Amino acid sequence: MSRLVVVSNRVAVPGESRAGGLAVALEAALEEHGGLWFGWSGKTSREGSGQLHERREGDIRYLTVDLSRTDLDAYYNGFANRTLWPLLHFRLDLVDYDRKTREGYARVNALFAEKLAPLLKDDDLVWIHDYHLIPLASMLRERGIGCRIGFFLHVPMPSSDLLAAMPNHSRLFSSLYAYDLVGFQTRRDVERFQDYVRLFGGGKVLRDGMLQAPGGRRFRAAAFPISIDTAGIARQSAAAVNKTGIRGLRASLDRRDLAIGVDRLDYSKGLPERFHGFERYLDRHRDQKGSLTYLQIAPVSRGDVSEYRKLRSELEQISGHINGAHAQPDWTPLRYVNRNFAHGTLTGFYRMARVGLVTPLRDGMNLVAKEFVAAQDPEDPGVLVLSLLAGAAYELKEALLVNPHDYDGVADAIAIAATMSLDKRKERWHAMMKHLRKHDIGYWRRSYLEALETA
Ligand SMILES: O=P(O)(O)OC[C@H]1O[C@H](O[C@H]2O[C@H](CO)[C@@H](O)[C@H](O)[C@H]2O)[C@H](O)[C@@H](O)[C@@H]1O
Ligand SMILES: O=c1ccn([C@@H]2O[C@H](COP(=O)(O)OP(=O)(O)O)[C@@H](O)[C@H]2O)c(=O)[nH]1
Fold first, then answer.
1. Helix (H, G, I), strand (E, B) or coil at 398
2. Is the pTM of this model over 0.95?
3. CATH fold label, 4-227+441-453
4. How high is the ipTM of this complex?
């Protein structure tokens, strides 16, 4: 079996790791193959970029690199999160294109290539993750690396016209041609990438997912929808019931039902729209008023990027307005919390909720949607209200699917979810759980790595 080398912007070093599906999946893959996980250390250094940190845990070697403040600002806060993130989430209006941050992004990718290339062997399998590292394979190839290299894009691939609106787009996106396998979350993302290659990228779409770059190099593009540790989350949520934090939330609800949302504070997650949808629910379904409390957990994310700071103050304003207009002396309709919670606690919260609200404007997948389903009590499952514009909607078809821009539709879906009969709730939940049991995180990584091995 080949050694696996995983490269991602964030590395879940044991002890420092943030809970999440990706860490679980990649750790299990590295344990199976033995290997190396390489990426940013999460730290800035006054001595400049390049200082390496190493840690070993069994057969896994974690190698991380510090970045200077200037490089981090250009690469992560700049080009990755102010240019590529909005572009890939269909938000041309928010794209800030700047040659300087683009150079910083290229510089950090080149630094990764320089540190990684000497460590690679011909029979390694290299798996690079996400929009932070698009040009990395081409930079490794320039340094003579010939082993199999795969890429997985965790975020959406937008329409090709949007990609083509970015200055110098082909220099960046044609660097994807250096991979052997390019993985996307959904079939639609693959189709949109094929359109780009055909219409703007000078390449050809062949049969069976194969693509041909202008120089004749062939590579494959396919969908591998990421998932969760379904069985693990079901066990974790059942065990969470008696934890203090969970009991505290239940007691505070005073027998009211709970609706829950869990999202990084990001404009792609559609939080202002969701708040408006909830307010519309309070207005349109007065008979239900006072029977449902909505808890929105929204840990601050990318706080150095101005759009994220603006969003935070916008949400504070809307949540204050909703509670001011609708709260009663003994009931606050919306609880808005900017804290990060451990996975073990979140799964207990999900299980307690009658309604799960996942309404992004665009999302590559959205693991919270899948976690919400897996965490439900089989005897009394809650209902998922899910945006049609999340990757997860391609699989979780028995959720109540909504368009997040349609506030009335979101409002009515909340009302339907809150009053759905037990039989209907069970029927929908069983169908989604059946899918998630088979298509779990292990299925995702096995299918990707098998495809890369045979690429
Ligand atoms: O690393 P951050 O800047 O703090 O952001 C966290 C991650 O956000 C994005 O997640 C995406 O990946 C999920 C798993 O595939 C997917 O379900 C979700 O739809 C995506 O938004 C980002 O792509 C990651 O690189 C970040 O680490
Ligand atoms: O307070 C929190 C909020 C979120 N999460 C986890 O962060 C991940 C978010 O993944 P998702 O795909 O939904 O969105 P992303 O943030 O990656 O865009 C999920 O595993 C959540 O359980 C967490 O552990 N604590």
1. coil
2. yes
3. Rossmann fold (3.40.50)
4. 0.99
